[in-house]
Amino acid sequence: MPKQYKISPDSPIGIFDSGIGGLTVVKAVRAGLPSERIIYFGDTARVPYGPKSQVTIRRYAREDTEILMKHQPKMIIVACNTVSALALDVVEQTAGNIPVIGVLKAGAELAAQKTRSGKIGVIGTQATIGSNAYACAIREENDALEVVSKACPLFVPLAEEGFIDHAATRLVAEEYLSELVGKGIDTLVLGCTHYPILRRMIERITGPEITIIDSAEAVAGKARQLLGSQTMLNGGSAQPMPHLMVSDLPQKFSELYRLFMGTELPDVELVGV
Ligand code: DGL
């Protein structure tokens, strides 16, 4: 049973992912909710999650949530589609009475709103695509929608390497995406939080006719709504730096943080898993 504690508007928002992908969520939450304190955990010792079994992903999900719970957050955002697809219930159980939002549902809802043709593409890790969770969540919104999915596992290590505008990324992206583009989709969900890091490259291949849905941006809007409805929004005027924690290689994480987020560079704490 998780320990109960008292939350207040000043309590932090806890966010986690397997690695740097969740920074796309941190960026979106900071843009939409600049006064909020953020505690971020990136499980860099065990990234990637996408090729792992459900049993392993569920164990990681519980351990990651426990790390965040030590900081008494007022909300947990699962900034990992893989965990959202396969282990959201584990996070909810571990978080007790603290609200949990996953990127997957937020991305699915936004995609269902945006499509005009009714044909949506979804890209994600093997685990996310194999679980069929996106297709189910999109059809829950509207069962007439058609979903075409494709696992793009190499995008995660490319993003972790900072290969944002690299020829290797272009080749891999062409290989993965040409198949989807030819299937008449008008909307493409970036169903892995690492993928927005490669968004420009992806957009170059999909072209202007296809609307890109970033599940990271979608979840930030949901967080604002939920905290607002619980009068838990932080009304302060300060813009606190996020508290970053990783399970391995903090220095590498700092470099990627700078590359991806701009110049600010908070300290990165190393925590054991
Ligand atoms: N960024 C995560 C996701 O959204 C996990 C990627 C991975 O570790 O394979 O699925």
Chart the SSEs and their pairings.
Blueprint: E1 13-17, H1 23-32, E2 38-42, H2 54-69, E3 75-78, H3 81-86, H4 88-95, E4 100-102, H5 103-114, E5 119-124, H6 126-131, H7 133-141, E6 146-151, H8 155-160, H9 167-181, E7 187-190, H10 199-206, E8 211-214, H11 215-229, E9 243-246, H12 250-261, E10 268-270
Parallel strand pairs: 1-2, 1-3, 2-9, 3-4, 5-6, 5-7, 7-8, 9-10
Helix pairs in contact: 1-11, 2-4, 5-7, 5-11, 9-10
Structure in a nutshell:
The protein is 45% helix and 16% strand. The protein has 273 residues and is an alpha/beta fold.
Explained architecture:
45% of the residues lie in helices and 16% in strands. It has twelve helices and ten strands. Helix 10 links the parallel strand 7 and strand 8. Helix 5 packs across helix 11. The model has no long low-confidence stretch (mean pLDDT 94). The structure holds D-glutamic acid (DGL). D-glutamic acid (DGL) is lined by residues 17-19, 21, 47-50, 80-82, 125, 128, 156, 192-194. D-glutamic acid binds at residues 17-19, 21, 47-50, 80-82, 125, 128, 156, 192-194.
